[in-house]
Queue: 2 jobs
Job 1
Amino acid sequence: MPRSVAGGGASANDGLMSLNTAMDGPRRRFPVAVSTLALWVLLIGAFIGFGAIAYQYRVEIVRGWPQTASLYDLFGVEVNVAGLEFRDVTNNLETEDGLSVLAVRGTVVNLTDQALPIPRVRISLRDAEGLELYYWTVVLDQTRIEAGATSEFITRLSSPPLGAQDIEVRFAEGAE
């Protein structure tokens, strides 16, 4: 049983109670500006993180959701879903047996870490306005390309149409 001190004095525990009560007084809050700043930092970090993931996995995203290709294009990010690209494409107009022959040469490069089939190549001749005058497709001698490898090709067209000013080389799609 606690002893009481004459004159209504306080017990030893009373001092602790008053100290605890003083510490529990009005709680301090983060200033609103600090909370707002933290929220903005978090949002910007999340946006940067999302952007980094969207860039890193852009091929997989476009394969699964083809509509996103236009969004990547809007930001100037090229997405190569095929994993193959053309390099060093050249064309020369030659003469063989008195006929004009257009020779188109280039290299197909596998940008992936796995072997891929090489689709047919579509070569298109266009006029000065960009209208297609003629096209043909070619099956390359090498139909499969190893990871990181290259494959050179050459195709020739006898008597190319007059007025051809530009050549487009791409992979054929579907039944083209």
Note: Residues 94 and 130 are 23 Å apart (CA to CA).
Job 2
Amino acid sequence: MQEEHLDDVLRIQRACYEPEYREDRQSYVDRMRIYPQGNVVLLVPDPTVTSVSPSTPPSPTSPAASKKRKKDAKWIVAGYILAQPFYRGAINDVNDVKLFSKWIDERNHLPKTEQDCIYVHEISVDPALRGRGLARPLTDYVEQLGRAENFKWLTLVALGSALGFWQRTGYALVNEIDYGGHACYYMEKKSGLP
């Protein structure tokens, strides 16, 4: 994810999240600065342009290709994911990068333990593009990131209706929580590391 993607990211976020769950622009900028590899967009062929074949969606892991795609104006942001190192069992509030930054300062240079995780802070797919399997490359990316950086756990807070989606991707419900006056679900998944 780069600053040039933020208008599209914020547009998708407004379509997918209630106001109390929306990050502001500065939060995205700060997250990209602190941990760029955890902030990823998924680009797909623009359906209004006929010169690009809409084959398999591109991987969100190729930033150089993302720059080229954006310049072509034949690609659009279909979705995004924010993931970060964090404290297992903790919840990172909307627009709060202080605890996340604290983890980076205190723990990033140390071996990962059972108490460290990759925390999926936010994921969204443009509602106009749903039903095409576009969330899968984003969730797969986070799993690969977790393993590559030696995290044994992936965690998140699922908002209401997303519980089933996360269960289908292998996350287990740990407990129900009240988050912003809404029932939400703290969930965990092993990254695949021993």
Note: The longest helix spans residues 135-148.
